Amino acid sequence: MFYLRTVFTKISLVGNRRCVSLRTLNLTLTKSPGRCFANGNPPREDNEEDTEAEYEDLVKRTFHLSDSGNQVLIVQPYVKWGAGKKRNTTPELQLAEAVALVETLPRWKVVDKLVLPLQSFHKNTFFGKGNLKMLRDKVRENERIVSVFISVNQLRGTQHHELEEQFGVPVFDRYMIVIQIFRAHATTMEAKLQVARAEIPYLRSRIRDYQEGALERIGASSSAIGGDGETFVDVRRKIVGLREKKLKQELEKIRSNRELLRSNRTKLQYATVAVVGYTNAGKTSLIKALTGKATLQPKDQLFATLDVTVHEGYLPSRLKVLYVDTVGFISDIPTELIEAFNATLEDALLADVIVHVCDMSHPDLSAQCETVTATLQRLNVDKNLLENVIVAGNKIDLPHRLGPDMTLPPDITRVSALHHTGLNALSNRIEKSVLAATGRVSMVVRVLAGSSEMAWLYKEVAVSEVVSDSEDSQYVLVRVVISEGQLGRFKRLFIDQ
């Protein structure tokens, strides 16, 4: 065994605080014929506990996980002009969302915040020399700042490394912050598995950027360390690969279970309505209002719902439907972060109708609606389903803060889930779409009162109204919502005979 201990630090005194760079590489290498391992412990497929521990350590270091909270400087960069300029929102609104993300995390606090105009996001140091120096001085002069959040979807590895070198504190991008929130809000095993799956792409993108780069700086070729054996990067890849393999197996079980549940719902001919929307738009609140389920407890926070859950409700015709609650979407995060939830999002993607919930009180309404639509398109939702999305404008009871150039989605139904305003109009729209999507029709059937025909209708289909036949009091007129298959069975049982 031999030891290689190289520490990359830049220590400077600012006031009475010591600023230390986080770029530290501390390796113990165990040499055996043709093999070389980090920390002296090769990952062993037959020792699951060790591999899990190494994986958790890798996640903790990569995402800078901490149980003690954080004090953050938020920087919201924006492109001033050109193709990269966002025209459906403002830097100030983007900054407000970045603040909301940080404040969603327990024991995290925003110490300072600012917006910075840039020509592009492609520099290796991300910022120009002037802005970089200004931010470095701000971090080092304020002892309360212990981390920096650059509010972009994902920093490149070289950018991340350079910024941490410059600031001497952990640097977060939006992907890292959202993962922190997912971890904090995941309570069920299903949600935790999907959050773990969402971590994998980010880990892969960082392993080579950080570790191989560090080895190169000490003059060692990462492809040659330890002879012809495994490199430090190889070891980390193997750890992630083993974890991903296990996660895929567990998530496949979830997928199989959900396919079985969907199959059972199909046999029972239940219609499904997926409720999607930007995070904290009020999806759960709307489902609670539509179903009357007192057990649903909506929360006023970002990403409160990570599990896809199904709730039974009734349309005006008394047709039973299942409302599917989904994880919220958000702008400026890679699609693969949301795609990690595909095992449960399939319930929504295979629904009969989609209801898109928008927050009418939010000043960034247009951008949020566009984000949801674009995310659904990237998730390959059926084209016909996308073309018939019902848009519900929620929170009309709150003051509107829409800017003068903000546009509303066409054919929007305004509602207040909290005060049940507009729910009848929304329910009628949902019913119309459900009937069209599932091939059901509303019709009146004349049967004998108290007959076996009447009993069958009550048991098998949605009965919305029963009135006496004015021409013969022995008969009743029963208004039902019935599918083609149900109508065929009714005819075979009671009419053909």
Automatic annotation (TrEMBL):
Pfam families: GTP-bdg_M, GTP-bdg_N, MMR_HSR1. This is Hflx-type G domain-containing protein. It comes from the Eukaryota. SUPFAM superfamilies: P-loop containing nucleoside triphosphate hydrolases (SSF52540). Keywords: GTP-binding, Magnesium, Metal-binding, Nucleotide-binding. InterPro entries: G_HFLX_dom, GTP-bd, GTP-bd_M, GTPase_HflX, GTPase_HflX_N, GTPase_HflX_N_sf, P-loop_NTPase. Residues 271-438 form the Hflx-type G domain. CDD domains: HflX. It comes from Timema podura (Walking stick).
